[in-house]
Structures are given as structure tokens and as C-alpha cells.
């Protein structure tokens, strides 16, 4: 008989919980995926472990550790505060590293900059001598050197920095036209820029593709667009987030009739014009529910700035290690932290470390924020289409993870009697294998079903 994944899962369901879990692990390892599992109850008692102290590439399960460290160091009620001030006639913006300025949300850049312009209008300021963006300690590279260099143009490799809009990206809208070129427009952020359109209309969907790249004061959009395609919006990593930030601010001032003239005289005394505040919890939700690499790296930089006055990528990682030592007592041997997102292939975590961090965070003031930000089985985020048609829908809160060669799932199972099971499942395999992750995800779900019944639950 040929053993398919469906047959293996059916066979597992007939076993006792611990046996079921062990057999699912055996099935994964038979497919070539080295598998580590750690499970503990709500009091921290270890219920199951397999390779729990071995180090694995965690993929996006690294974000669980990042979230725990950031919440420990910044506090669950942390707010990003960006200050706008008038100093010697110049508009000065002091960075907070706020990641939450996104069009279509309560913190739309257009609305925030509009508030600043409105304050200037109330002060009868019609001209400022210039704009100064003060980065504070946010310095150095905007992306980890260990990220894939051939993917830096993608939205999921967007840059971080002191002044960032739209999670380090810009968005271009494309739609079909009756002419030789597609219709293109800048969807976000709103700036004064030149769109250089070279997107050809084509009569077949085969080979249709398109992309965009920014060049300072212009954006080049090129490719082929299928004539019958519905409108689309593409997101692309910005070359320099601060350039877009200043351009959006200048655009908003212009709409309000406020000019920028270095030779002008401003009679208004130095004053703070506006302070914009956003909550850390919004970024936590994107980091875990949407698996945002940008938010993970940006929040680490804010952690470094807050704790040691070093908002660089290296400063963020150093601050992360310090907070994890507070949470865990010590960082286990074999753990390697190269970034906060898990995109770097050289990261290494153990399943036991992830379970310990989840539990330690839960005992602290950041536990509710982390738990509420985790995707929910069959309902939200990256778990929306997982565990469907099972009784685990709504009861599993967990972070998914995948990069080539690594698949992972870590989080919590809520039981009907109010008890919980904390778990981490890390799998590593030959990255040259294609299509394996679908089978591994099914086995992960079978493992979680067994974990739900561990410890005497019927």
C-alpha cells in the first residue's frame, strides 16, 4: 500500500495522543524533515519533547521571540511619539521609528501631515525655511546583511529606518486601457513624483508581468499588462524611505498653501506644533498575524533606541538578546540571532526556547498583546485557511513560518476546560526539495490535534 499524507493522518487519529504525536513526527522525518517539538502546560510542566534542545532554522517563528523581547523591553502600552516642531523658522521632525503610518488606517500619512499643516495655518505661518528630519540614534544599514540580496525589491524585504511610510514600500495601481500603454497611478503614499510608464498592453495573459522601481523624484513602471485583467495594486520596497517621507510632507504642506523658502522670515517663536502617537500593539498585530518582516525589524530598532540609545540593526539585536536573558535567564547554546523576522537562513532557535519565551511573556505585562496578535486557526492571518473543518478552529493561536528548507508552527491550544498547551514545532529539510511544505503543514496540524489531547484530556 502506498502511504499518502492523507492515509498517514488518518492512521494517526486512531492512536493515543503521545503515540499520535510521535508517529506524526516519524512521518515528517520519513519525508526528510528533521523535526523538533516541545509542549508544556499552563503551569510550565513539560508534557512532550522531541529534539527540543536542538537548533533549527525557525523561519518566521523568529517573530515570536522578537515580539516577546520587544514587549518585555518597551512594555505593552508603549507608544511611538513623533514630534513636529518649529525651530528658527524651519519645520523639524524628530523620529520615533514609528512603523504605523499606513494609508487607509487611522494613521494615514496624508492625515497626519495634514494635522501639522493645519497647526501652521492656525499660527498664520504661510512659509517655512526648510524641513529637517532628525533621525536620532536610528542609523546604519536599513536591512540585515543576511537577507537574500536578490529579493530586496520585494515588499517583504522592505527597508527600515527613522522615517518610514507604508511599511517601507510604495504602491502603484495598474489598470487596462484602450491604448498601447496601461493606466498607472501612484496609490500610496501621496507625493509629487513623475511616473515613467512603460507598461505595454497585451492581448494574452501568458507572459504578462510588471514591476516598479523608484529613482529619487520619479518612479519607473514597466512590463506587460493583460488587456482583460482587472485593476491591480503592486507594492514595492522603497529605495530610501526618508525620501518618500519628506516628499509626502512637502506635498501636504503644498496642499495647505504652505511654501518652503530658505530666504523667508518666520515671525513665530520656536514651538512644538504636534506630537503624533501610535500604539505598539498595532505593529505587533502586523508582525504576528500578517507575518510582517518590516514590523519585526523596525520594532527591534525601536527597542535598541529605547534601551541603549542605539537604533541601528545591530543595536536592536543586542537589545533583543538582553531582554531575552531577562525573560529566559540565559540564552541556550546553539541559538543564533541574525535578524528579528526569521528571513535570514542562518538564524537558529530550539523548540524549547520558543515555548519558554511564550510562557515567560504570558506571565509578564505583554502576554495579552502577544496572544491577541497571534493568528487564529481558521479565522485570521496566516492561519485563516488552516485547521478548517476541525474542532481546533478558534482554539489554536499560533505563528506560522516558512522559508525554503524550513517550516514551523508555534503557539497555544486553548482547551474546552480552560487549560492551555504551549507548543513549538520546528522542521528543517533540504531546501532543494520542492512542494514539501504542503505535506508538512498537514502533519503539523495532526501534531497540534494530538497536543490538544496530551495530559489526560479525552
CA radius of gyration: 25 Å
User: What overall form do the CA principal axes indicate?
Assistant: globular
Number of domains: 2
- Enter the CATH topology name of the largest domain: Beta-lactamase
Report the CATH superfamily of the largest domain: DD-peptidase/beta-lactamase superfamily
What's the CATH class of the largest domain, please? Alpha Beta
Structure classification: alpha+beta
Q: Which range does the strand content fall in?
A: 15-25%
| Order of H and E elements | HHEEHEEHEEEEEEEEHEEHHHHHEEEH
Report on the biggest sheet: 5 strands, antiparallel
Distance between the first and last residues' Cα:
31 Å
CATH architecture descriptor text of the largest domain: 3-Layer(aba) Sandwich
Instruction: List low-pLDDT spans.
Output: none
In DSSP terms (H or I, runs of 4 or more residues), the helix count works out at: 11
Q: What's the topology here?
A:
Layout: H1 5-13, H2 17-30, E1 34-41, E2 46-50, H3 62-74, E3 79-87, E4 90-94, H4 109-122, E5 127-128, E6 131-134, E7 169-175, E8 183-188, E9 194-202, E10 210-215, E11 218-226, E12 232-237, H5 241-255, E13 259-260, E14 271-279, H6 280-289, H7 293-308, H8 313-328, H9 351-363, H10 367-373, E15 396-403, E16 406-414, E17 420-428, H11 436-452
Parallel strand pairs: 4-6, 5-13, 9-11
Antiparallel strand pairs: 1-2, 1-17, 3-4, 3-14, 7-8, 7-12, 10-11, 15-16, 16-17
Helix pairs in contact: 1-2, 1-11, 2-11, 3-7, 3-8, 3-9, 4-5, 6-7, 6-10, 7-8, 9-10
